[in-house]
Write a structure and sequence with these properties.
Elements lengths: L2 E5 H4 L10 E3 L6 E3 L4 H8 L3 E11 L2 E4 L2 E8 L6 E6 L10 E2 L2 E3 L4 E10 L6 E2 L1 H6 L4 E9 L5 E4 L19 E5 L6 E9 L13 E12 L1
Parallel strand pairs: 2-4, 9-16
Antiparallel strand pairs: 1-4, 3-12, 4-5, 6-7, 6-10, 7-8, 10-11, 10-14, 12-15, 13-14, 15-16
Length: 220
Amino acid sequence: MFRHHWNVLSILTAAVFVSAALTFACADDDNPVGPDDHDEHEEDDHDDDHDDDHDHDHGPGEAELITTLAVTLTPSGGGSPITVRFRDLDGEGGNEPVVDVLAVTAQTDYNGTIQVLNESETPPENITEEVEEEAEAHQFFFETLGGFSMATVEYADKESDYVTNSGADHPVGLSFTLSVGSAQNGELRVILSHFDEAPKDGVTRSDETDIDVTFEVLVR
């Protein structure tokens, strides 16, 4: 497992806060989708020093680097899509990650999608497909923070969109909607929980986090 530490404030001086913790398949709120104990979460995930784990474990002795999370937003009324990315292409101990700033328009609704990649390989490995295949064991959670807390995020998919689910048909979050409304500048946090031992109930994060990234948001 790759594991390294870096200070969020040293990554982007333009107020981009990043906390990335990727341990895929057997790894580790102002306005969240999928509530959690926020006070406990603040202590665990928002210290000045963070773990940045870039593993996607397939089994004993086998692991893959996860380098990229991409969020694409398309205006529901029509218009050009917006894509922002977290990228750490050389992994642990290399260059600092690059995190895009998300610019959205007030009073606009967006249809969103998420993609997770390993771009250190040629061609890049689309790890999103494995999230789909293991939809019952994964769920994205969203937090709108600061001045952006008035924006709302709703799920637009369920496990049955990807697999024949064996139990309750919980959300996955690879597809979602974002309503900006009168929100102001702030942050959008995207967290992928992996449910290995803990049961997935559709509203509560697990103790295992595959990826955790916060994008700065500018509202125009």
